[in-house]
Design a protein that fits this description.
By secondary structure, this protein is of the alpha/beta class. It has helices spanning 32-45, 68-71, 76-79, 81-96, 112-118, 143-153, 155-164, 170-175, 188-199, 204-216, 227-231; strands at 9-13, 17-21, 53-57, 101-105, 108-110, 122-126, 130-132, 181-183. GO terms for molecular function: catalytic activity. InterPro entries: ClpP/crotonase-like_dom_sf, Enoyl-CoA_hydra/iso.
Length: 233
């Protein structure tokens, strides 16, 4: 099973692979080192028989988005091509992973954190979580994220989320289908784990096939994948 080469990421391998973002001092904002570590880990996980994967964050928040030192650069698009490719690869690998992925959200699930959640199979939020996609306020847009949101909640609500960049309450996120359930912060990880534990009762290949079939209908949302990749060629 994969080793981790950065203190910014913790991995615990058991019946469920628990991956913890570990930059609590910046609310687990994603910098280049963390993005690269996530990409490397997910690539290696793809090489093994898939186990359920639980994604969480240490400290007060799960993920506050891309590190402000990166995203505040006015030339972000031009000067961070490699970083953008890496983080997009993380989203692709998460969505393409054969096992079920659970996202345990608390504190802040913002920007790239919300995209991590959108590419997971089960999403559980604490009732005091700040959930938002503020990229438009930063002059940025992510086409795949917009398509995933529209597929999940419909065009009108997707436009509200993307075009306003304003927070969504956890309870409203549950009502519109962005998350599976809302619980107390103390119960987020355990509730997410229960979803994943239930899938362990079933045939792993069947679970992977069901997930793949559901995801294939929005194959155009993948960031770095071409059509040949999606056909398995």
């Amino acid at each position: 099973m994969p080793a981790v080469e950065t203190p910014h990421l913790e991995v615990d391998v058991g019946d469920i692979v628990t991956v913890s973002l570990n930059r609590p001092e910046v609310l687990n904002a994603i910098d280049t080192e963390l993005a690269t570590a996530l990409e490397s880990l997910l690539k290696r996980l793809h090489e093994h028989p898939p186990k359920p994967l639980l994604l969480r964050g240490n400290g007060e928040a799960t993920c506050s988005g891309v590190d402000t030192a990166i995203v505040s650069n006015p030339d972000f698009e031009a000067e961070n091509v490699e970083f953008r490719h890496t983080i997009h690869e993380v989203f692709d690998l998460l969505r393409l992973y054969g096992g079920p992925v659970g996202f345990a959200g608390k504190g802040a699930v913002v920007g790239a954190g919300m995209v991590l959640a959108a590419n997971s199979d089960f999403v559980v939020l604490a009732d005091d979580t700040t959930l938002m996609f503020p990229e438009i306020k930063l002059g940025l847009l992510s086409r795949p994220t917009m398509v995933i949101l529209a597929d999940t909640v419909g065009d009108r609500l997707a436009k509200e989320i993307v075009l306003t960049g304003e927070p969504i309450t956890p309870e409203r996120a549950r009502e519109i289908g962005l998350v599976n359930c809302v619980v107390r912060a103390a119960d987020v990880v355990e509730t997410t784990r229960r979803y994943l534990d239930q899938t362990r009762e079933y045939d792993a290949e069947l679970v992977a096939s069901a997930k793949h079939t559901i995801n294939r209908r929005d194959a155009k949302t993948f960031w770095n994948r071409n059509e040949a990749d999606l056909r398995g060629e």
